[in-house]
């Protein structure tokens, strides 16, 4: 592999105009495609195999047209203190608001609260349900403005008015902190390379790669039913790995220049060595992201595949566009150890012989491996303790910040109609095979009424055929509570008995039931996902490092870092530690998909640092150094760059903490803290300590396995056979290959 990539690097360096034109043309093409593509609608959320999804599919068949994905809104009215909402003056205000809402061109119906019995028992709160022809994402701004204006007019007239529902749904904002993250990355690159031009290359190529990836996702969003979260995740991961992969190639290029290579040869060798590490690091990330498909939740699968595609683009750009841009930069890219005059190059030259920080740190760890190992493991173990209290759930308006009208509407409805009102359960009764459908449905209602934690059960609503009915159950407890989850399981248990007695099938659905089923499905898939992803990556790392213990140590270190990161997420988003500092206005259950998502993404990123750092150690060991000295050598060449890469990745992920969407905020924080734990504690402390303790046994591989494995030559050993002089037939060979 090193030889093939070496030739690719030299080809890109020499044919820089062709390579640059290709990537710019591709960016332009997908950009035009994204601009002309139809806007994506609301992303459908389906969870095949769950009872909630089966019920939803049944209702679509038996109640055609009633389950359209049109937007809905609840306009909640509260009377002033000491008054009733039914008082003449207040009732007139509500009536006018209902009439104004009904005038909207996209409105299909508005339920008058006084006719629909949507008034609280104490008479102070009422709500009007508004239904629209189109989804929340397709709703015109004029319809949203009319909704907000109507609410404001009623509020100005003396009532407290808040609006809930998905009619106010908009694309989430990531906030200015995303730009700050990129700015931090730029500063770190300048410090690392000592050159503005060298620092600009990784940023430029990462932005081009992300631009191509996100534009492709935008262009395909309508056809493939991709949501806004998909492009945000692709941007987040693509930007981080794009900068990191380019950083490693440019850093190796400068090291080759420092060894006296000419610029074309240095570009070829940089791609042949660091590029090999980039390929395998990228493969681990792709495996982890594509592996999310084993959960069998289409939305999660699409997010993983889209992000994996952006990572693949980042790999190809690092292997081709970076050497092309290095050719354009020429002498403006300095060898390692040299800085531009503007950044103090003369002062840096005087300190060239002094051991760098990576060398000093690795030497310390090699001398004190047991102490460093124990300190690192105990520290991560302590950080992981909150993970034992992990509670999972999916967010609703109750998890929104209190500053939003959706959250205030949620709270008003809870006050007026009970905490369970915001999470009703929809019971679908399939009585097609029953001798008496009405009797079967009556038995279902009676049994549900007898269960605990039930506030109310509505009369049954039959379809035209009279063989299927829906019943709405309002729990006493809030949607995310354990009590409500127990009620769902109790209804399903009763359904099994009813099936035996009446041949009627009882299915529980609705948002609350769907959230419960999703959480259970994700929990059930976690272990198989771990086995698949870690197993495949373990085999891949055996091929890369030609060792059994090094990949095993990498996998165990990952488990430590991901558990510590989950502990930090629980402490902040569930317990509320430092919540105000991070802009978390509302604590509650951790998003259901967070554990499995973090396992996938963090594993891929963790293996990035493992590959980049340990391949330099492996390279030194293969070239004849002792095992302990190879650890120090690996840190001398790689620690500074890995540190810079980790800081950049943390800055990029942390930039998404400013998002207005709680899911993106949580993912940004979780990935940022996971990179910190994995890069600075696991890879920088635990890994060298373990390798120092293992010595040459770390690189042991059974002879039969050594013969069976393909030799991918990540260390670039095969490059020794190549002459430093360029082969005139090299380009022809590359083209033929």
Descriptive overview:
- There is one protein chain.
- The protein is α+β, with helices and mostly antiparallel strands and 737 residues long.
- The protein contains 23 helices and eleven strands.
- Strands 6, 7, 8, 9 and 10 form a five-stranded antiparallel beta sheet that branches. The chain has a four-stranded antiparallel beta sheet with strand order 2-3-1-4, with helices on both faces. The chain has a two-stranded parallel sheet with strand order 5-11.
- The longest helix is centred in the C-terminal third of the chain and has 35 residues, at 511-545.
Please describe the biggest sheet, giving its number of strands, its sense, and whether it closes into a barrel. Answer: 5 strands, antiparallel
Q: What proportion of the residues is helical, as a percent range?
A: 55-70%
Rg from Cα: 30 Å
Helix/strand structural class: alpha+beta
Question: Helix tally?
Answer: 23
Distance, first to last CA: 12 Å
Strand content: 5-15%
Find the count of extended strands (DSSP E, 2+ residues). 11
Overall geometry comes to: elongated
Weakly predicted, low-confidence segments: 346-350, 723-737
Output mean pLDDT: 83
